[in-house]
Amino acid sequence: MDISGTTRLYVVLGDPVAQVRSPGLLNPLFAELGVDAVLxxxxxxxxxxxxxxxxxxxVANLDGIFVTVPHKFAAxxxxxxxxxxxxxxxxxxALRREADGRWYAENFDGTGFVAGLAEAGHDPxxxxxxxxxxxxxxxxxxxxxxxxxxxxxxxxxxxTAKLAALKARxxxxxxxxxxxxxxxxxxxAEIVVNATPLGLRPGDPLPFSPAALATGSVVADIVxxxxxxxxxxxxxxxxxxxxxxxxxxxxxxxxYREFFGIG
Length: 263
What we know:
Radius of gyration: 18 Å
Order of helices and strands: EHEHEHEHEEHEHEHEEEHEHH
Number of domains: 2
Largest sheet: 6 strands, mixed
Shape: globular
Oligomer: single chain
């Protein structure tokens, strides 16, 4: 890849950022399409996020910002305009510069996750689903699961105020289909999703116990690195079908191309 004075820039913001996989997908895509652009990771501590985003917005050849843990809620508040999905979830994972110079926020986590799940043969339509984590990605996944026709959705997160706010937003669009709790409620779930960062580090505890799940329940993780988290390893050893985090990002590529006008 040749980088020159005409190269357009994209960044992915996170804290930490070592685990991000998007440069490994987007940069080969730029090269394949002959697009003069590059995506680079930027380690953005939470305390400095607003200043970093303000500086990036002033970079004239920066066209887009990708957002990962833990900045997705904060990023939504730093955009000038937001998509309906961002309004529902309160979080964003992509911002683009508009023709008028303003920044527009979107969230593809949920639609990407559900698309990857369906492509792997685990369509959530008419199925009970449990979701652990109501953060930026979890909120988007919750909305996408309901939009895809999940029969009922049990969401857990220790932050009860955040949970209540998410439930209120979801109930506006899908009344009565979501229950919330501070602890995981996996009873009867056919698909159980870890939408927390637990699993990024070797010493992390399990987000829920796969041993407590019904036989045949699908266990899905959004952690992308390591590919096989402790949760997925233990779930597979118990005979549960498992679904890897990488699917969520891979399924978003076409959405990113359209959103940013790539190629």
